[in-house]
Amino acid sequence: MGVTKDYLRYNLSGTCNIIASTNGVLVAITDSICAVAACENVYFYNLRTCEKKIYFQFGLKTWMISKCDLNMIHLFYSFFYFIHYILIGFSDKCEFITFSGHKTGVNCLAFSPDELVLASGGKDSRIVLWDIVNECGLCRLNGHKGCITNLQFTQNGHFLISSSKDTFIKFWNLHTENCFYTLTDSRSEVYTFALLKNDTLLLVGTAELEIRIFQLRWFAECETYDEDLNSIDRNTEESWSDVDGQANVIFYIVCHTLRYVRCKKLGHLFRQAKGRAVQIAFSADERIFTCLGASNVVDIYRIYSDDERRKRISKKLRRAKKRACERGETDTLAENDVAKDITTIISRIGDYRSNSKFFALQANNALNFVVATANFKSNKIEHSILSNLDKLGHRYDIRCLAMAENDFGFASGSSECAIVWNRYSLKIINMLEDDAMKEVTAILFVTGDKHLITGTAVSSGSLFLFDLATNEALDFRKKAHSGVIWQLSPTPDKKGFISCSADKKLIYWSYELVKDMFKNVLSFQSRRILELPDEALCLAASTDSRLISVGLLDNTARIYFVDTFKFFISLYGHSLPVTTIHISSDCKLVITGGADKTVKIWGLDFGDCHKSLFAHNDIVTCVQFVPNEHLFWSAGKDGLLKQWDADKFEQIQVLSLHSAEIRAITQTNSGRYLISASHDKSVRMWELSEEILNLQEEQEIEREKEYEKRLIEVEDIVPGEERIVEADLAAQKSIHSIASAEKIINAVEIVRKEMAAKGDNPYEQHNSLVQYMNSSSFDFFILDIIQKIPSSHLEKSLLMVPYKFVPDILHALGTCISKYYRVELASRVLMFLIKIHHNFIINSSELLPTIDVLRKSVPLALEHLKDVCGYNFAALRLFKKQIEARTETNFFADVSEISTKENRKIKKKTAV
């Protein structure tokens, strides 16, 4: 019997470098504290002290903060077709709700004014409405043909406005679930919009360099709109003649649109920012709003009140009359003509002065606290940055990593600097910067871990030597290579290092001490140069100091003898350039990763290829052996980190928390800790745990995931039902809804078996599941099983139940309703089943008695439930009055009055 080998699982130990995710939204809590989403975490920063106050950690990838205040925080995780909604109280445990309704990622979210309905817009051009209380989907709105960019409820949640990249803005009636008006004025993609002045002013930001402004007039249900209909041009019979019998249809559509809202374009304002409009935000008093563009410019505008607008109109009239008198003209502008000028409503402000504060999240992993001052008399603005979080991490992508010899920390390099991190606390120890050091592409700790060497891509491959005690650059070699330095590696004897570059050279460097004034200073000198046939992209040295391997741009890897630089073997087999290479500790194996998405395992004795693995779905960026093992890690631009067995050619485990391509990896000398850096701005540390992996179980889990994915992709079709264009079921098929449907089917089959067995042997013991549910009857048992299904998956689960099980369910529901058992749930399930199986039910003679009984019992049961709720509500109101009369206080106090009184007390104490 062969010896089996146990593999241990790696778990996430910590995350650093990331300040905030650019797609996670920034929310202000107070005037100095803000909340941001950073990968799977939510951070709270105090921008006055530049410290991280508290944070919440979750096991998912990317979060979006919808809204936040001092007591509660609303979070959303949207990945693929799932929306995970979390409501967190800072003193209570979080509540977790899962909604499945989109085929792709969720792009925007919006709450109704009462915070009971959630609208989600996806990249699949669908809008889904969710009931937060009932935890289920309300409907799916299918009208747009592009990615949904923004959503907003209006008119107390009765209507919803949506924008999309298809250039349209649509107005939806949530009661009838249809689009009653489409705004088609934009000629390019609509990215954002905002409603001001009680939803009567619509600001639209597009890909063009202008903000379009519309006036909305909303009509109440009892309000007449005859004067608006009379404004429609029906004077000429030719324009409204019944051409092909469609004139009345056109007039009906126009009337239907004017029933709810009338939209009128007022004009447009030009932006100074280049590129598309990203976001429109306005102050609480709606006097100032800002438009964020794709560039680094924020346009600031002022909104005038009615009094200010009248003053501006009269001022413009006086100026117009004065100019007309100077030119000797008799015709003057009327007041209505001047009022059409959009600058009388909104105008762009120049330089900044105001007592406003705002937080700015930048794309380069930076968060700024900005104070702004506005002078409304002169329309001038001034702004200044009070504080920022620039010193908490890199501004740009990390290109390289290096681990210290004693494993106390690791170093990372990016475009602007190099940072040394403490491995235990994941905090910054040193930040190394130099005016000449740009685009750090390679990094290395010098023997002893007191110095650091960096290689750059700018200035034709320069080398910098830093002293970690003083953060000063001790030595600088400009143009050490005539091309980009791609990698630095220590020599096995630790007396120097090796560098490879795009200039087709591999250089050996040695350390030496140079006298400087009163002390010796560390420096380095080039000793040997190896000329290569093509550009070098990576290198690896064997631990026995015998061989050196280099990955080249010509799709091959070459191995040379170290002592003579004599060519040994060439490893050819990649169809694209070799991007990474590494040699095992026992010098028996070498692994290469290429741009062809494969990892190849080679024997170092003869250069034969042992195995070629299709490792990643994108370019392989890093490979590295675990010390003293034939296990190795591979990372790619698909964001996955995988561990492999080089002897058995098996995949051991996959680490998939990164949401973007992985640029670099490194590990400690013991292999217990692994560090990875990604394009998502995060640096993650993985720790080896004591959990043993079973490869067969892991492979079975992967196969189950693939099978579940195929099941989800199959669409369900209701027999005899035509697909509705604008509205549909909200829920999307998921593995949870499939499992719930199987539970319902299993419950019906158990009841059938129990009923058959009861006829043969009435004293036979019931099924274990029936005993566990402790249901008083089999009909109650079926409804109890349905009650266990999450409300968000119920409708989709019932849709997947075959019709042959429906008669049993209808019979059980009729019995439950007649006995007033879970009447609300039973009625909901009953109405949905009758809707989707209507054609079969009306043609089934067996179900006629059941339907006739339900026709009589359902109204009685619902009326009884309504009476019970009304009786309880009346009793609660009576108890409230009794408590208020006994205590002489209001049962529910006004929170705003309490906070006002507390603020007054604080001011009095401060004054004393």
From TrEMBL:
Pfam families: Beta-prop_WDR3_1st, Beta-prop_WDR3_2nd, Utp12. Keywords: Membrane, Repeat, Transmembrane, Transmembrane helix, WD repeat. WD repeats lie at residues 99-132, 141-182, 571-612, 613-654, 655-689. One of its GO terms (cellular component) is Pwp2p-containing subcomplex of 90S preribosome. One of its GO terms (molecular function) is snoRNA binding. The chain crosses the membrane at residues 70-90. Residues 782-880 form the Small-subunit processome Utp12 domain. InterPro entries: SSU_processome_Utp12, TBC1_cilium_biogenesis, WD40/YVTN_repeat-like_dom_sf, WD40_PAC1, WD40_repeat_CS, WD40_repeat_dom_sf, WD40_rpt. It comes from the Eukaryota. GO terms for biological process: maturation of SSU-rRNA. Belongs to the WD repeat WDR3/UTP12 family. This is WD_REPEATS_REGION domain-containing protein. It comes from Dracunculus medinensis (Guinea worm).
